[in-house]
Amino acid sequence: MSVPAAAPPFRLSPAQLGLIAANFLMWGGFFAVIPLVTVHFVDGRGWAAASVGLVLGLRQLTQQGLTVFGGAWADRIGPKPLILAGCLIRTLGFTWMGFADTLPVLLAASVLAGIGGGLFDAPKNAAITAVTRPEHRTRMFSLTSISGNLGMVTGPLIGAALIGLGFRTAALAAGSVYLVAGALLAATLPHTRPEQTAGSGLAGLRTAARDRRFRRFTLVLVGYFLLSTQLNVAVTLKAVALAGPGATGPLYGLSAGLAVVLQYPLLRFVEARVRTRVALVAAVLTVGLSLGLMGLAVTFGQLLACVALYSLGTMLVYPTQQTLTARLAPAGLIGSYFGFSAISLGLGGAVGNVVGGLLIDTGEKLGLPLLPWLTLMLVGVLTALGLRWALKDVPTREEAEEAGL
């Protein structure tokens, strides 16, 4: 009886290091300028807050919509050209924002920035999959997520320092970061040409949409992304109500800081003991329960304790979700499946931004302050149950490796 060869240890290659570093730069550049858009154009220029909200919403809608197709194109030409083109276009978009003096110009610049993001988003995940062995993908996605959280922490600090030199300077600096990220990936990321299949390209999106198991997985995840937006909506509103406007700093700092420190060791601990699909279900359930507990918080310290629990759940969702997406995708259609999976983020994020505020307002009007939190907890429980159902036939990592996935 032959003994299967042991998997090689996880050591980062230049391509993987380049992807991690570039992801840090991308997130840092994004958060160095996007929070300043509201400050500059509403507080500094006196524009209506609704008009700036339209700018930011249009960028997100453009990026998420194009991400679906970006993944399909990656299956045709490979992820590297799309990532590099996306970095260049994002640079142009952010630079143009610095020179915008009317709403139509700012809207056009935000659309251009969104196009750039849509080009590199799903292809970046496809590139991670292509340069990482199946048994190491969960760890690689975790390290990429950590680098993004580091960028989320440092970006606003850099932006706040640059705004003293003017919004244009901050926008130019943020845009140039994407040029650095693109140059780094140009030097380290190989140009992998995907295996061409009859269903690759845009036809790959139809294949993903017709894959009943993956379609269920993607649609159920809408519930999770509805919950994940609440840190920016319902949780922020409660934090400000408990501790004033200055509460947002500790709130976001705790969430991102925990992810930087704990995500990788927590993932290693869970990965060694729990199957990936079970870990995802448990993580989503943790997010839902933590939101329910937030309704009982009467001090800012209690709320932060709930946010810590919330963060433990969210930091496990990204790497497990991405790993399962790669496992479910057929050979040659990795990008299409990652692109199609962006639908859950787009729908969940859009609905969550509206529902979070609506639930808070409704709870206040009815005199039921627990209403939003219990509703969000119920969404978390239903989403966890839905994921358990949607993933019941998903192969384990060992089964997937035997099948060559």
TrEMBL record:
<dbReference type="InterPro" id="IPR050171">
    <property type="entry name" value="MFS_Transporters"/>
</dbReference>
<feature type="transmembrane region" description="Helical">
    <location>
        <begin position="331"/>
        <end position="351"/>
    </location>
</feature>
<feature type="transmembrane region" description="Helical">
    <location>
        <begin position="249"/>
        <end position="266"/>
    </location>
</feature>
<feature type="transmembrane region" description="Helical">
    <location>
        <begin position="371"/>
        <end position="391"/>
    </location>
</feature>
<dbReference type="Pfam" id="PF07690">
    <property type="entry name" value="MFS_1"/>
</dbReference>
<dbReference type="InterPro" id="IPR020846">
    <property type="entry name" value="MFS_dom"/>
</dbReference>
<feature type="transmembrane region" description="Helical">
    <location>
        <begin position="278"/>
        <end position="296"/>
    </location>
</feature>
<keyword id="KW-0813">Transport</keyword>
<keyword id="KW-1133">Transmembrane helix</keyword>
<keyword id="KW-0472">Membrane</keyword>
<feature type="domain" description="Major facilitator superfamily (MFS) profile">
    <location>
        <begin position="1"/>
        <end position="398"/>
    </location>
</feature>
<feature type="transmembrane region" description="Helical">
    <location>
        <begin position="20"/>
        <end position="42"/>
    </location>
</feature>
<keyword id="KW-0812">Transmembrane</keyword>
<feature type="transmembrane region" description="Helical">
    <location>
        <begin position="170"/>
        <end position="189"/>
    </location>
</feature>
<feature type="transmembrane region" description="Helical">
    <location>
        <begin position="217"/>
        <end position="237"/>
    </location>
</feature>
<feature type="transmembrane region" description="Helical">
    <location>
        <begin position="143"/>
        <end position="164"/>
    </location>
</feature>
<dbReference type="InterPro" id="IPR036259">
    <property type="entry name" value="MFS_trans_sf"/>
</dbReference>
<feature type="transmembrane region" description="Helical">
    <location>
        <begin position="302"/>
        <end position="319"/>
    </location>
</feature>
<protein>
    <submittedName>
        <fullName>Multidrug resistance protein MdtH</fullName>
    </submittedName>
</protein>
<keyword id="KW-1003">Cell membrane</keyword>
<feature type="transmembrane region" description="Helical">
    <location>
        <begin position="105"/>
        <end position="122"/>
    </location>
</feature>
<dbReference type="InterPro" id="IPR011701">
    <property type="entry name" value="MFS"/>
</dbReference>
